[in-house]
Amino acid sequence: MKTDNRGFLAFSLAPYLLTMLAPFRGAAVINILTIGLLSCLSLFSYAQERIESDQASLIYHSGDGEEHVSLPLTTQVEMKVSGWTNRVNFRQVFRNDTQHWLNGRYQFPLPDEAAVDHMRLEVGSKVIEGQIKEKLKAKKQFEMAKKAGKRASLVSQSTPNIFTTSVANLGPGEALVVEISYQELVSYKKGEFSLRFPMVVNPRYFSPLSMQEQKSRSVSFANTLATIENGTAFNDHIGIDAAAKVSIEVELDAGVELGLISSPYHKVSHTQLSGSHYRVSLTGVKADRDFVLNWRPQLDTKPVAAVFSQQGKTHSLSSKAQVEPTDSNASTKADSNKAVEDDYALLMLLPPSDQKQDVSISRELILVIDTSGSMSGASIAQAKRALNYALAGLKAKDTFNVIEFNSNVGSLSPYSLPATAKNIGLANQYVRSLKANGGTEMQLALNAALDKGTETEALGSERLRQVLFMTDGSVGDEQSLFHLIKQKIGESRLFTLGIGSAPNSHFMRRAAEFGRGTFTYIGKLDEVQSKIESLLYQIERPQLTDIKLRYADNRVPDYWPAMIPDLYAEEPLLVAIKMNSTQHVSSPTELIVSGTIGGQYWQESVSLKERKPELGLDLIWARKQIAALELSKNGVNEQRVKQQITALALDYHLVSAHTSLVAVEMTPVRASGITSKSVELLSAIPFGWVPPATLPQTGTASRLFILIGGLLLSLLGIYLLSYYRAFGLVFSPQERRDA
Questions:
Q1: Whole-angstrom Cα distance, residue 264 to residue 119?
Q2: Predicted pLDDT at 692
Q3: Can you give the pLDDT at residue 731?
């Protein structure tokens, strides 16, 4: 620990100061103030010493006295990419280097569409498999195990992209491994595949306005308020850099030879194992930004449509009933159930290349930029540069406006302006003046952006209205914002741009789905131009709108998302489908996709006879259905939606808002007479993130400096007054009357 000598120096000088001031009148007052000042200096010395100590040991205490400590934590991630799916196993290794028995809790992000379906606990040679249970039951089992001295682990979902691992009874010197698995789809844009693994949670902002709206609509207000007060769902322990390290290994089997493998934010190494099989490695990096891996096939031609399929469930009956036939009737029933198992499919669709529109349309482009405190640093620079590129890409036939928001909302103009050189110049000046500060009142911004005023109507109602929303998505009240978008989107299209090293992809992806737009992630400055130009080119030329699916016999399949977004150039459509099978209805053999291209009806038939086998598609379908149910929740149907989500998650062995994975060792390891301590593991600061004005304990001692400055000025004033009176330069009122 670094030693600070300021307190020692202050008290060493105290006798000399008091001796010098003693002859003067008012010395008693001066003595008191001097002692007070020296005490403040001592307090400052102690506070500064604590700050330096905390930064070294990564330990600090919150206001309620709860201890927060960064235990040595490493994360090992293994990914297996096969075609369109990515199976991810990651191991969180907790090591207890203290002399105490510890109960730990660690918050971490995952992709917002990750279908988490497996967890196991490893201590030495012992392995305990996790079971999916209703959230309250899993929590109760975990707490009972913790109290009984048993090793246990609990994996819970706070939001669709923020999860929490809790571990109980980690002994001194022990290491405990929690392995979590999930399934996801990789993304594909402009001929390039991509996956993203988030590694840090951005701090969240809760809007008092949206909380009040939730209260008036009775949408989980009590739960939201409890979350804010208890800090159980969001990372409010930002401010100290945790030393957590992450290693990632990806087995990439793309099915075709690759022309390029790259990671824009990390240095990776890759080895070709066979023609289309690669291994990509990232070792021991700091968990302060998201990991992104891109790969581009060498082939230039792409199929118009393709279907990947799977028969039955990944976790068939294993977590529900453990069916073991004991007689011939039971065996017959099991065989019968197996015969009518549902199929799951993933449809990929690209419009025919000869259908592309080469002529751009007239648009009203609303550019919205988040200027809240969470956007400080690199994020605001990226967003402003993106705005300037968007302004430069406007055509003479377009109209536009710029809206900025933090605790309030401002705009370039009360209504959209023609894209003249003069107006674009005014917009550039407006953008240059923007600074990041304040809260994230996104509700006000969405209201302003989605309102189509009379001035806009006068400028031309035939224009396609597109809203470009640039933010890090650091809000904690997503549900009320989704509700607002559903109500006000109309014929507008909402496109979200994730800005910064760790944006809230759950909010931005779902918001874009509701707005029938797309989500784009910009992680660093040198990506801004290419990504914004690509996005602007795409949204000028929508390829397929009003998309619908049906079988050849006119039955409608069970697919998600239920409201399929528009299809844009060089970006495929991916839809998860459940094909219900019964003994009385034959399996469908053809799927018909229809929509509108350039105002003309279009359809494509896809054969379901020739399918490409794939695994985990049932998990992806169920995860998308759960997401759709969450978004449909309101004050009237909340209880029913909760029951539906719980039943679906238990059926498919998935972690959700109402289910958790829990693993408990049967034998106690901590003696009943020994107590354990509960600790909170800290998260790293997102790369490039600058804390807003309100800082945690590790911020500067600015208030203490102000207090010390005030005391010094007061001491100086009294000293001068006493000095002048001592030499007869200042007289009392009685002395003036006597004179």
A1: 30
A2: 52
A3: 53
> Which structure tokens are listed for 129?
């498999």
- Indicate the Cα dihedral angle 201, 699, 694, 379, nearest 10°: -50
Please list, residue by residue across 475-502, b when 16 or more beta carbons sit within 10 angstroms of its beta carbon and e when fewer do.
bbbbbbbbbbbeebbeebbbbbbbbbbb
CA 351 to chain centre: 32
Measured on CA atoms in the order 413, 416, 417, 419, is the torsion positive or negative?
positive
For residue 33, what pLDDT is reported?
55
Take residue 711 and report the two structure tokens written for it.
Answer: 């005391």
Closest C-alpha among 690, 680, 685 to residue 287: 685
Helix (H) or strand (E) holding 421: helix 421-432
Q: Beta 590-597 vs 542-551: how paired, if at all?
A: antiparallel
Q: How many CB atoms lie within 10 A of CB 329?
A: 9
3-state secondary structure of 564: coil
Indicate the pairing of strand 573-579 with strand 162-170: unpaired
Decide: 34 and 21 in contact? Cβ < 8 Å. Answer: yes
Closest CA to 651 of 286, 319, 273, 267: 319
Instruction: Determine if residue 328 is left, alpha or beta; phi over 0 gives left, psi from -120 to 50 gives alpha, anything else beta.
Output: alpha
* Whole-number Å distance between alpha carbons of 232 and 284: 28
Return the structure tokens found at 43: 């307090």
What does the DSSP assignment read for 284-345? Answer: EEESSS-EEEEEEES-----SEEEEEEES-TTTTTTTT-----SHHHHHHHHHHHHTPPEEE
Q: Where are the domains of the chain?
A: 57-201+240-296+658-668, 363-525
Give the integer Cα–Cα distance in Å for 686 and 374. 10
- Region for residue 207 given its phi and psi (left: phi exceeds 0; alpha: psi -120 to 50; beta: otherwise): beta
Read off the amino acid at residue 491. E
pLDDT(670) > 80? yes
Beta-strand ranges (E) seen in 350-474 are 363-370, 399-405, 409-411, 417-418, 464-471
The structure's pTM equals: 0.69
pLDDT at 300: 45
CATH architecture of the domain 57-201+240-296+658-668 equals: Sandwich (2.60)
Give the list of residues 6+ apart from residue 434 with CB closer than 8 angstroms, or none.
369, 371, 380, 384, 404
Residue 620 Cα distances to 111, 157, 176, 443, 631, angstroms: 13, 17, 29, 30, 17
Tens digit of each residue's pLDDT (9 = 90 or more) over 46-85: 444 333 333 222 232 333 444 555 555 788 999 999 878 9
pLDDT at residue 237 above 90? no
3-state secondary structure 623-640: HHHHHHHHHCCCCCCHHH
Domain 363-525 has CATH 2.60.120.260: no
CB distance 649 to 131 below 8 Å: no
Q: Give the DSSP H or E segment for 33.
A: helix 27-57
